[in-house]
Amino acid sequence: MFVELNNLLNTTPDRAEQGKLTLLCDAKTDGSFLVHHFLSFYLKANCKVCFVALFQSFSHYNIVGQKLGVNLTVARERGQLVFLEGLKSAVDVFFQTQEEPHPLQFLREANAGNLKPLFEFVREALKPVDGGEARWTYPVLLVDDLSVLLSLGVGAVAVLDFIHYCRATVCWELKGNMVILVHDSGDVEDEENDILLNGVSHQSHLILRAEGLATGFCRDVHGQLRILWRRPSQPTAQRDQSLTYQYKIQDKSVSFFAKGMSPAVL
Amino acid sequence: MLDSLLSLGGLVLLRDSVEWEGRSLLKALVKKSALWLVYHDFFRDPLNWSKTEEALPGGPLGALRAICKRTDPGPVTIALDSLSWLLLHLPCTTLCQALHAVSHQDSCPGDSSPVGKVSVLGLLHEELHGPGPVGALSSLAQTEVTLGGTKGQASAHILCRRPRQRPTDQTQWFSILPDFSLDLQEGPSVESQPCSDPHIPPVDPTTHLTFNLHLSKKEREARDSLILPFQFSSEKQQALLRPRPGQATSHIFYEPDAYDDLDQEDPDDDLDI
């Protein structure tokens, strides 16, 4: 969890808003530091987290998580974290016989239909446990990342339907939060990815967009972060709707500063 | 004009974007016009994944077509949130035909009972669709409202096409109050545009430097009174017009020494003739 990012978003683990969908998007740079931030943020907020990790392995997230002060192995053992390791489960679809449909069942189908089995997995993972007292504050769904599903052959509309159903269940019914990462293809003409990105943008309450600098690689400024709050325009705008900051990623933290105000430049 | 959009009837297209969302305006317009609200909930299970009996047959399109068959004489407003969802899941032609059938119900021949005016208010997310479907819906619409704005202030550009009249357009600045009532405004107010970013205090870049960039009073005066060398001032003009006799061109005094042989035809002494 990066404290400076919490300050920019005006939130802390104890008083985060519920029922919100946050979209993380990266263009010409790697936005995965935002995924690590939100993973450690919600684990520290004592939430039940369902992480659909399609991009990296469990050990990768665990190593980075330990630098940020959370232990994913412990969280998984005590039931706080439900981790779907896409890289490992994809192989299980082919080599293990299972009665109920596997979350990544669409890999077996000739033309990938819908993501209903994946949604059922998420719903099952986050549904409140009956009988016991509430151990966790609220459920959170984290997806890294959605563009991988497009590469695996699922249509953009099917992925949007999956997000819609997750939003209806997680955000509306269970009053939890969702954090989704989608890559922006940028210059490359990718219509399906654009439909996916715009479709999720219209469903989200907060958009964090990490962009590479227009001038290229820099040692002291790794990129630019655009924060966009999507809310109805109010007569007295208490907060700005959109903010832009530049950032530098260090070993255990990320420092943010206004454009052109990097300490290395001044 | 924004508050009287629905009185014209027909299809009203509300076009929004990621930066300027239109759902709150849709809710505000519904709130303004609705006396009796019937809510069809397709949010929780639009594709009937939970396979319950309470789902309406035919999904959202079936519900839309069922509205066509109503016989209620009063005026009706149908709000669709959103048309983009329908456009992504249905062929464009099917949706256009359904919308045309619903919004032109009052001019249907052969109906025994007179049917009241029907307005269809649809929310469309512009970036999700290509120019073809958006153009098709736009041509069906009697009124198009495109959302935009500048710093924190939203505006609606309203294009109204009335039959046998020239299309009219106007821009209306507005905001939505927390109880979803519409607040029309004159224009972007001056106070809402902050002159400096409130999050970052103004930083003086000359404070932490190892060299001195400041000027003392004497230095500042000297700098201000300096005449630039290539500036054409009146003194320079006088000097050029009156060449001073004492100032001759410069002379070079040269004393050749013993080894110098000033041969004009071979000054470098390297021709081997």
TrEMBL record, chain A:
Q: Which family, according to UniProt?
A: Belongs to the ELP6 family.
Task: Kindly state the subunit structure of this protein.
Answer: Component of the elongator complex which consists of ELP1, ELP2, ELP3, ELP4, ELP5 and ELP6.
Stated role: Component of the elongator complex which is required for multiple tRNA modifications, including mcm5U (5-methoxycarbonylmethyl uridine), mcm5s2U (5-methoxycarbonylmethyl-2-thiouridine), and ncm5U (5-carbamoylmethyl uridine). The elongator complex catalyzes formation of carboxymethyluridine in the wobble base at position 34 in tRNAs. Involved in cell migration.
Alphabetical keyword list: Cytoplasm, Membrane, Nucleus, Transmembrane, tRNA processing
Protein's recorded name: Elongator complex protein 6
Q: What is the lineage of its organism?
A: Eukaryota, Metazoa, Chordata, Craniata, Vertebrata
Its BP terms in the Gene Ontology are: autophagosome maturation; cellular response to stress; homeostasis of number of retina cells; inflammasome-mediated signaling pathway; locomotory behavior; motor behavior; neuromuscular process controlling balance; neuron apoptotic process
What gene is this protein a product of?
Answer: ELP6
Pfam families to which the protein is assigned, alphabetical: ELP6 (PF09807)
